[in-house]
């Protein structure tokens, strides 16, 4: 079946600003889940859910910007997602370009910097080109960092990091005794980022699905039944407000 899915720039409804501007999470990471179920409920093909998911990304970026969150990491494609039907993969791989084609001017206006984590080289050329263009264009922006996890898998990331550590030890660039959590951090894709303060997962699933396993050690988790295409500023605000009530103890009392 072929359906036309025009991508357009839509206005989102303004939500009230956060009442409490203290204790805003510096880094919010999101597992965007439920696109397929959203489409199924409407008897639409799964890709219609992914298309609507792009609009939810736009709303979330606006909400994060408005809330003064500094880093927003979105799990857009995992190393396991290659197991999906080729047609769905092809559609998912076109989304960054579609998104950037329409929204890059707004991202520039909002001073957003785009970055990725994951095995970038293994992405299709057209995806890499579009994302690389946006990364270059936004590299001097110093507002919200919009970090797409693209072809990302945490176990792969850790294995790659471990191989680099071993190589550096063998080449005497690193002493075995010098390896610490901080040193290991520097071998991960996320080396320039602080760990997420808040992890959101949509669609009622409560698992990590190979996402940032090392980096989420002390992160607060927030789950919602809302399917990703229905996620909006109001749900984002709810997550932030619940986070603001949490007491983080990092193993202390
Ligand atoms: C999981 O839902 C979602 C994905 C694997 C894709 C996520 C991608 C987007 C939301 C769009 C990304 C946008 C840009 C701009 C890169 P699922 O398909 O597994 O849903 P299901 O569990 O209900 O089947």
Automatic annotation (TrEMBL):
Active-site residues, Swiss-Prot/TrEMBL: 33, 81
Gene Ontology CC: one annotated term: cytosol
Cofactor(s) the protein requires to work: Mg(2+)
GO biological process: polyprenol biosynthetic process
Binding site for substrate: 34-38, 46, 50, 78-80, 82, 84, 201, 207-209
Pfam families: Prenyltransf (PF01255)
GO molecular function, one term: magnesium ion binding
Keyword Magnesium found: yes
Enzyme Commission number, as recorded: 2.5.1.-
Keywords annotated in UniProt: Magnesium, Metal-binding, Transferase
Cofactor note as given: Binds 2 magnesium ions per subunit.
Residues reported to bind Mg(2+): 33, 220
Annotated function: Catalyzes the condensation of isopentenyl diphosphate (IPP) with allylic pyrophosphates generating different type of terpenoids.
PANTHER family, sorted: DEHYDRODOLICHYL DIPHOSPHATE SYNTHASE 2, DEHYDRODOLICHYL DIPHOSPHATE SYNTHASE FAMILY MEMBER
Record's subunit section: Homodimer.
Family: Belongs to the UPP synthase family.
Name of the protein described by the UniProt record: Isoprenyl transferase
Species of the source: Virgibacillus chiguensis
């Amino acid at each position: 079946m072929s359906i036309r899915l025009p991508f357009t720039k839509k206005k989102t409804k303004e939500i009230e600003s956060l009442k409490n501007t203290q204790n805003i999470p510096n880094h919010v990471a999101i597992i965007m889940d439920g696109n397929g179920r959203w489409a199924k409920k409407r008897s639409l093909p799964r890709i219609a859910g992914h298309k609507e998911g792009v609009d939810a990304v736009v709303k979330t970026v606006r909400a994060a910007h408005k809330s003064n969150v500094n880093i927003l990491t979105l799990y857009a494609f995992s190393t396991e997602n290659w197991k999906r039907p080729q047609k769905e993969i092809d559609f998912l791989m076109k989304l960054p370009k579609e998104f950037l084609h329409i929204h890059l001017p707004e991202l520039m206006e909002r001073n957003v910097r785009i970055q990725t984590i994951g095995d970038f080289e293994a992405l299709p050329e057209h995806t890499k080109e579009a994302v690389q263009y946006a990364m270059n264009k936004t590299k001097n922006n110093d507002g919200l960092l919009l970090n797409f996890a693209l072809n990302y898998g945490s176990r792969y990331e850790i294995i790659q990091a471990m191989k680099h550590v071993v190589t550096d030890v063998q080449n005497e660039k690193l002493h075995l005794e010098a390896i610490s959590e901080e040193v290991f951090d520097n071998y991960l894709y996320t080396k320039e980022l602080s760990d997420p303060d808040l992890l959101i997962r949509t669609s009622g699933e409560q698992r990590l699905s190979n996402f940032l396993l090392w980096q989420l050690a002390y992160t607060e988790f927030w789950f919602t039944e809302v399917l990703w295409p229905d996620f909006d500023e109001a749900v984002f605000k709810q997550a932030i407000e619940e986070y603001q009530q949490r007491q983080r103890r990092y193993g202390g009392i």
